[in-house]
Design a protein that fits this description.
The chain has 53 residues and is mainly β. The radius of gyration is 10 Å and the shape is globular. It starts with a strand and ends with a strand. The model has no long low-confidence stretch (mean pLDDT 97).
Length: 53
Amino acid sequence: MDKYVCDVCGYVYDPELGDSDGGIAAGTAFADLPADWVCPMCGADKDSFSKLD
């Protein structure tokens, strides 16, 4: 699964880890995150993330 980086603060969403503080289980693909999920570091929305090459 692809990792995504927050263009605002540089946080990397790794689907293998999920976002335990945000209630996102490990193994959750970025595309499967809820529409209202925000970056746990800066609060940016999903539109502020880019696929990590």
